[in-house]
Amino acid sequence: MKYAIVYSSKTGNTAQLAQAVQATLPSGDCLYFGFPDPQVLQADLIFIGFWTDKGTCDSQTAAFLQTLTSQSVFLFGTAGFGGEEAYFQRILTAVKTHLAPGVTVVGSFMCQGKMPQAVRRRYESMEDGPHRDMLLTNFDRAVSHPDSSDLLRLSQCVSTILSAPLP
Ligand SMILES: Cc1cc2nc3c(=O)[nH]c(=O)nc-3n(C[C@H](O)[C@H](O)[C@H](O)COP(=O)(O)O)c2cc1C
Which residues line ligand 1 (CB under 6 A)? Predict the structure, then answer.
């Protein structure tokens, strides 16, 4: 079985997830690890990592997803917000709209990812109120993510996928 891992990461959070996926795969079976590249289209299973931009995947990942035709993929991503699983599911639903009907999504994983300090300063300058409080609370909750528990859950998710036969 040959695997490939492609990912897009602006500030390093999704890169951490990609490394956790790589560490979980049987050594020697990973054809490619890096930014989206057409050479991975031959892999039996492609792990695709994205960061969330305006409620869906970043544009580099979106462009790559649109090149797929009949591959099996596992989607993983990070988002600045992450209070509830339903939020991640809405993002994944939006991400999947970039896929052709012949592509099979064998699994997915999302967790929160810290944001740059400049974002917190912007929130701090906002008018006092519940919205500002919510943004600041969320920012502070994100600071430690992805954490070791996120990476372990991702690794377990990948192990489960590897032990199941591909469609
Ligand atoms: C331009 C921009 C837009 C973003 N839009 C969203 C968003 O719509 N929803 C969200 O939850 N996080 C959003 N974020 C936060 C990032 O998705 C999050 O910090 C992610 O972990 C970054 O991943 P990376 O470190 O791999 O680049 C945005 C960040 C940036 C820089």
Answer: 9-14, 51-55, 78-81, 113, 115
pTM tops 0.85, yes or no: yes
Ligand 1 centroid distance, CA of 72 (Å) = 25
Q: How far is the C-alpha of 134 from the C-alpha of 116, rounded, in Å?
A: 17
- Could you give the domains of the chain? 3-114+145-163 (3.40.50.360)
What gap in Å lies between CA 74 and CA 46, rounded to an integer?
6
Per cent of the chain over pLDDT 90 is 92
What is the pLDDT at residue 164?
82
pLDDT of residue 165 exceeding 90: no
d(CA 74, CA 167): 13
Residue with tokens 């490394």: 19
Q: Tell me the best of 16, 21, 52, 91 to mutate to test the pocket of ligand 1, counting ligand atoms within 8 Å of each CB and taking the most.
A: 52
Q: Quick one: DSSP state of residue 9? A: -
Q: What pLDDT sits at residue 83?
A: 78
